[in-house]
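Here we describe the complex-level prediction in full. Unlike the single-chain runs in Section 2.1, the two entities below were treated as one system.
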Amino acid sequence: MHRIVIIGGGPAGTITANHLAEGLEEEIRDAKVEVTLLSDQPDQVYKPGFLYLTLGLESSERIRRPVRELVSPYVKVRLERVTRVDTEHRQVMVESDASYPYDQLILASGARLDPAATPGLVEAGDWFYDEDASMRLHAKLDALEEGRVVVSVIGVPHMCPVAPLEITFMLDHWLRLRGRRNTVELTYTYPINRTHSIPQCAEWASPEMMRRDVNIETFFNVEAIDPEKKVLRSMEGTDVPFDVLIAVPEHRAAAYLEESGLLLGGWVPTDRETLAVKGQEGIWALGDTTDLPVSKAGSVAHYQSSYLARNVIARVHGLDPVARYDGKTICFVEAGLDSATFIEFNYQRPPTVPEPTKMIHWAKLAYNNAYWLTAKGAL
Amino acid sequence: MADTNVKQEIDARGSACPGPLMELIRGIKASTVGESVAVLSSDPGSNKDIPEWVDKIGYELVANEDHGEYHRFVVRKTK
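The structure predicted for the assembly as a whole is:
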């Protein structure tokens, strides 16, 4: 019996599980291969939905599905919280005292937020990267008649690199529709010397922000927040006051990876093409948990999963892993509440930013629902 | 100065997003004072972006090596 264990019930985990179930169906039926997915949550949440939740445009119920409904019946789903990977004895330890031996292990446990890493952020800040926080932020924005809202990218790297642009443009539009844009000042801060790490995105976003009277602070790496005075302080020595702070907190890999000695510089060191974990035998990684210089975005996990699954299947058959991920990434970018653009790129080809249109916005809204077909491996 | 204390070398060649400078900031944030981080970049813009940020924040650019198709930058966290 060849045992494959996947840790993580997010997009990376479920899509990979379904690729494996399809590619190894015969072997699983013949009990020669077993695929087990360990998830610490019963539901998978469609995280791009948090942007809409923050503005009261979506409901919590509509952006989640049970993990068990998303994966093939050929995959064993176990609700377990992983505590450690014992690489010496090749087994995954979990809180329930059970253990899961593996021949091949796939790390797909994503990234978690660490707002406590920034002094003052927990006391004074808000964010839109989880469900409860998005709801709290919505209540604050809904009640805000006047004042200063600051969108600040603190964590590097973070999930969905275009999300800070999206929330800025969506919030600008939302405030205008409510007749509050004249009384609410909007400021956007970013760690490097432009408004986005992708130059083409920055070339589009900067004039768009200026056109919409969004203040821009670049070279702004947040050092601390003064919760009493409600001031953001940067490592570069600039202060920015706020009434509502929409922060992108620091991100971390899952805690069990640190316990297992599988991190380097905070993330799992991963071969950028084969997706094998460096220095380990039979361990693979994809999605947000890797140290790869690619976006921490669902589309990356989606595209990586097909290459990774092919390499895992090759190993099952005693072959060399020859599938090579090329860095492919596609991201929709909401440019307000009724227009959007999208970017597509890989390791070799930089993106271009098409003019935002209503059609692309509708495509984005349609994909928000169609995503569940991707999670099931059907799209 | 030789980069004898490079804690981490990040291969950001071909990185459109988040990009070499963001990768460097990630590495620097995970470092302690006195340690250096190296980043490999094939993006011509890094020749401007990285020295500019290092200068702005007051760290030390230990090396900027031209390897033809890419540059290797070494930055030391000095404070």
